[in-house]
C-alpha cells in the first residue's frame, strides 16, 4: 500500500489539473460568449477589393456550420478513442488475467480504477484540454488583430460620400464609419486566425496520431495511413470551404492550421508521449499514475533503499 505522503502528493496533483482545466474552460467561455476582451478596430481603404466579396449569409448557412463542426471535433475523437481502447483492453484481457497489483495505483487500495478507464480518461482529458487551448489561442489572435473578413465592406456599408472617399486610397480608421448591423460587423472583424481551420486540423491530427501509435493489430499497415490521410483531408477541406465562401482569407486559414498542428503535436509528443506510456494490463502501476504523472518516492522508500545499498556494500 502506498504511503500517505504519496497519496497527498497525488491528490494535490489531481486538484491542480482540475484547476487548470477549469481555468482553461472559463477563459475560452469569456473569449467566446462575453465582451470582456474588446476587439481591435482595424481600419480599411475606401473601395478595397480585398473586403468587398459577397456575404453568403450567417455561419449557420455555411456548408460546414459551427454546430456540425463542434459536434464532429468533440464527438468523433471521443468515440474513436473510447471504442479503440475498449477493443485493445478486451483483446489483452482474454489473453491474461488482471494483475492484482493494478489495485495499488494512484488512488491507493481504497479505490480500484480499471486500466481501460485510466488510459481513456488520460487521452481524452489531454484532447479536450488541447481543444479548449486551441480555441483560446484562436480567440486571442482574433481579438488582438481584428483582421477583416473578405465580406467586411459588404456588411459595413460605409457611407463613402460622408467619409470623403473621392480617392480610393483614403484610409478609414474610426469605428463609426460603418452603418450596418453592429453584431455582424463585430463578427466580420474576427477572422485571423480561422477557428474552424484550427479546430478541425487539431482534431484530425490528434486522432490520426492516436490511430497510428496505438493500433498495432495485424493488417492495419495500410488502413492506418489511409484513415489518417482521410482525416487530414477533411480538415483541409474545411479550410478550403472557409475561403470558398469568402468567410476567411488564405492567411487566416494557414494561421489556423499552424496553431492546430502545433498544439496537437506538442500534446501528443510531450504530454502523452505518442500514446505509448503504460500498456493496459502489462503496465506497472508503480511507474505511472492515473493521469500519467511520474512516481514520487516517499521518505520511507528512500530510507529502505539506502539501507539496502549500505548492506550490499558491507557484504561485498
Strand content: under 5%
Structural class: mainly alpha
Coarse shape:
elongated
- Rg measurement, Å: 26 Å
- Would you list the SSEs in sequence order as H and E? HEHHHHEHHHHH
List low-pLDDT spans. 100-110, 278-301
Work out the number of β strands. Answer: 2
Mean pLDDT over the full residue set: 81
C-alpha termini separation: 32 Å
Residue share in helix: 55-70%
Main sheet properties? 2 strands, antiparallel
Number of helices: 10
* Widest sheet, order of strands: 1-2
Number of domains: 1
Protein model, in words:
InterPro entries: PAP-like (IPR043216), PAP2/HPO (IPR000326), PAP2/HPO_sf (IPR036938). The chain crosses the membrane at residues 12-31, 67-91, 124-144, 197-215, 222-241, 253-272. This is Phospholipid phosphatase-related protein type 5. Belongs to the PA-phosphatase related phosphoesterase family. It is a single chain. With 316 residues, this protein is mainly α. It has one domain. Helices cover 59% and strands 1% of the residues. The chain contains 10 helices and 2 strands, in the order αβααααβααααα. It is elongated, with a radius of gyration of 26 Å. The two termini are 32 Å apart. Mean pLDDT is 81; it is low at 100-110 and 278-301.
Amino acid at each position: 500500500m502506498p504511503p500517505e505522503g504519496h497519496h497527498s502528493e497525488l491528490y494535490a496533483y489531481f486538484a491542480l489539473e482540475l484547476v487548470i482545466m477549469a481555468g482553461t474552460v472559463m477563459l475560452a467561455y469569456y473569449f467566446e460568449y462575453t465582451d470582456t476582451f474588446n476587439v481591435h478596430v482595424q481600419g480599411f481603404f475606401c473601395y478595397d477589393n480585398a473586403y468587398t466579396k459577397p456575404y453568403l449569409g450567417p455561419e449557420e448557412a455555411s456548408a460546414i456550420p459551427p454546430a456540425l463542426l463542434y459536434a464532429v471535433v468533440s464527438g468523433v475523437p471521443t468515440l474513436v478513442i473510447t471504442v479503440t481502447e475498449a477493443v485493445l483492453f478486451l483483446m489483452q484481457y482474454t489473453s491474461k488475467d488482471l494483475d492484482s497489483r493494478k489495485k495499488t495505483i494512484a488512488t491507493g487500495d481504497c479505490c480500484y480504477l480499471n486500466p481501460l478507464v485510466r488510459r481513456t480518461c488520460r487521452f481524452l482529458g489531454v484532447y479536450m484540454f488541447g481543444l479548449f487551448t486551441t480555441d483560446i489561442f484562436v480567440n486571442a489572435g482574433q481579438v488582438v488583430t481584428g483582421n477583416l473578413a473578405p465580406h467586411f465592406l459588404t456588411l459595413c456599408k460605409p457611407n463613402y460620400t460622408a467619409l470623403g472617399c473621392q480617392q480610393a486610397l483614403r484610409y478609414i480608421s474610426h469605428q463609426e464609419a460603418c452603418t450596418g448591423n453592429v453584431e455582424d460587423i463585430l463578427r466580420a472583424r474576427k477572422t485571423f486566425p480561422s477557428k474552424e481551420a484550427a479546430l478541425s486540423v487539431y482534431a484530425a491530427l490528434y486522432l490520426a496520431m492516436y490511430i497510428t501509435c496505438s493500433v498495432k493489430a495485424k493488417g492495419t499497415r495500410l488502413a492506418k495511413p489511409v484513415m489518417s490521410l482521410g482525416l487530414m483531408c477533411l480538415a483541409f477541406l474545411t479550410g478550403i470551404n472557409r475561403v470558398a465562401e469568402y468567410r476567411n482569407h488564405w492567411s487566416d486559414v494557414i494561421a489556423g492550421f499552424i496553431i492546430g498542428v502545433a498544439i496537437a503535436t506538442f500534446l501528443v509528443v510531450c504530454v502523452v508521449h505518442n500514446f505509448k506510456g503504460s500498456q493496459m494490463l502489462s503496465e506497472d502501476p508503480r511507474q505511472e499514475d492515473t493521469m500519467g504523472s511520474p512516481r514520487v518516492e516517499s521518505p520511507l522508500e528512500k530510507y529502505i533503499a539506502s539501507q539496502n545499498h549500505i548492506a550490499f556494500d558491507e557484504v561485498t
